[in-house]
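Margin note from the TA: students keep mixing up input and output lines. Inputs are the sequences; the output is the structure of the whole complex. Example:
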Amino acid sequence: MLNPKLKLNPKIFNDDVEQVPIRKGFGQGLLLAGEADENVVGLCADLTESTQMNLFADKFPNRFIQVGVAEQNLVTVASGMAAMGKIPFCSSYAMFSPGRNWEQIRTTIAYNDRKVVIVGSHSGISVGPDGGTHQALEDIALMRVMPNMDVLSPCDAIEAKKVTLALATTKRPAYLRLVREKTPIITTEETPMEIGKTEIYWMPDVGLAQVGIIATGGLVSHALFAAKELEQEGVKTKVMNLSTIKPIDSEAIIALAKECKAIVTVEEHQIAGGMGSVVAEVLAQNFSVPMEFIGIHDKYGQSGTPKELIEHYGMGKNSIKEAVKKVLKRKI
Amino acid sequence: MTFLSEEKILELEKKANDIRISIIEMLIEAGSGHTAGPLGMADIFTLLYFHILRHDPKNPSLEERDMVVLSNGHICPVLYSTMAHAGYFPVEELKTLRKFGTRLQGHPHREYLPYVENSSGPLGSGLSQAVGMALADKIDCKDKDRFIYCFMSDGEMDEGNTWEAAMLAGKHKLRNLIAIVDRNNIQIEGYTEDVMPLEPFHSKWKSFNWHVIEVSGHDFRSLNEVVEEAQAIYEKPTVIIAHTIPGKGVKEFERNYKWHGKAPNKEEGEMALKELRNLRF
């Protein structure tokens, strides 16, 4: 069942569940953050509408900097603005930022300890028809290895709004990963969100879970759909929404592993170096359990509809169910 | 900033020489690092820190201070030496350059030495940070209150990031931004015009909507005048192309690109120190 304490969207399993792009929540959140603090500034590399920064840019034209198609400049100018006390959010597609400008982010933001939020929209395979060049499947890995950098990957538009608002008040540089496609609304305005803390969104009605599913970003809904069907098939699971990939909530992950003794991770990202790797690092050092990883297996994407691509690359509901059954057999 | 009297110029020349001596001393001690660029830029750094900048070495975080962004972090021996002589930290500390536990990292790191405004080393991203600072002041209507100075090398003009920043500064007519390019014609593998030609350099900047001034990098009076001119330009950012002699002050090192990226050994260093110490004013 959905965790009753979290006031999640009761319509999540309905066919007519509201679907909103996660990036939209960022746009709304940035507007609110801008209203709350006049030091918040926005920078964009010619993708203002696509990344939903246009809401902020229209309201605060004097605090919006259009840098043109120049992602290296995007983040380094943001670093300079942060040095003067501004709170810059800079947005582009994840493939270009942090894809193209990784060293600039490392040196001038993370190493330089300047509070800048790098917003990478259009992450994952679900970018769809644009094809492999535009599908960022490596960005979590790129950003999580950087000391002094937080990594956030919200599960729906409402959580993205809350994360954006929260990031305007934290001290550390951060990467905010967003998805282009419409995804089901999972949470509500009342659902708690705290950076660095995970929540269990799905749990057995009674008793202990047999497998823990840890999901992030746009695939959290797929994990929930899988969990519901698995319950009907007699397999009890818990689904954790891991929206803060760094700093990692080790305590909650270890607790889940101790209860379930088997874990499946779910992300729209390369398996190498992604969120699943983070979970594996935590568990290998603290409480080893069998794991299965849902994600991309060392491949680039291609054109197609998001649905086709998620199925083709083995990240959909059925693949998650298979992974749960597989890991169940591996339990000691 | 004020008129430069003959006495003041003499004082600056002596100070620059002291700064060069410290550069050689610290490089001998470190056993690695860059020599030609720091020696070539010693005069301009001296003028800035001892005549032009609004700053307070005893209160480095002075709210209304001018900002100095060093883009080509590898010439940090001149920055460290100048800052030490200006009173930011003891001159004796210069001998810790590049050693374990030092505040004077091989390339500047703000976490270790908070008196520097930015950590740098990888080339080409200093100007854009300076642009960000100038933009922030413009948003806050403080762009008449102070200047953002950005030191760059000519070699790093090969980096695309530099020109992205130049374009944005031109777009926003950042009058509070003054870039100073060390036009010493060398980079690590040879002469700039062989590695990647920059000429026509002046017109490149002009076409990006900058006010462009060329000047000798070793003449205090001319340098002072061009900085004054840059401060007077109202509608554009200014770039000062400072023609410098790499290795300036030590005949053996001058104009030789081989001294770009290496430090003198003990013998070479002693020879250089002798030359600098015997300079008569």
